[in-house]
Design the sequence.
């Protein structure tokens, strides 16, 4: 029968913030602080620790890349929507005669406020325009 090896005791000085974080983590996990510290040191000294850190960084970079791609898509949709609306509006709206133009300018503030209110409702309640546009629009147009 083999006798289990006795663990060696070690004194470590920790920064108060690190100690507080260690205590909080140990309390959340309901584990002794020494067990968590031992696992952290073993992980740090492990030969594959660099590979695990690299994998974690790569995973985070992939998530950021996907978020940036979605953001780029959303901005592209916004720009194209605005350009299409402006082109449509300019081609379909005839200029007003001067007396009507004065009346329209007088109502512009109220109409703008109504527009902003409608936009606010649309943004808060949805659906968003980007959700109405399929992800594979370019693929379906090219076929």
Sequence:
């Amino acid at each position: 029968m083999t006798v289990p090896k006795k663990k060696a005791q070690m004194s470590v000085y920790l920064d108060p913030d690190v100690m507080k974080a260690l205590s909080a983590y140990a309390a959340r996990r309901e584990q002794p602080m020494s067990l968590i510290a031992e696992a952290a040191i073993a992980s740090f000294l492990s030969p594959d620790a660099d590979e695990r850190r690299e994998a974690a960084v790569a995973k985070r970079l992939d998530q950021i890349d996907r978020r940036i791609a979605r953001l780029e898509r959303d901005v592209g949709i916004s720009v194209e929507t605005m350009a299409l609306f402006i082109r449509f509006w300019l081609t379909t709206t005839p200029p007003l005669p001067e007396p009507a133009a004065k009346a329209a300018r007088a109502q512009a503030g109220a109409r703008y406020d109504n527009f902003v209110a409608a936009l606010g409702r649309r943004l808060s309640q949805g659906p968003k325009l980007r959700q109405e546009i399929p992800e594979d629009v370019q693929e379906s147009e090219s076929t």
User: Anything to note?
Assistant: The two ends are 73 Å apart (CA to CA). The chain has a mean pLDDT of 85. Residues 49-92 form the longest helix (44 residues).
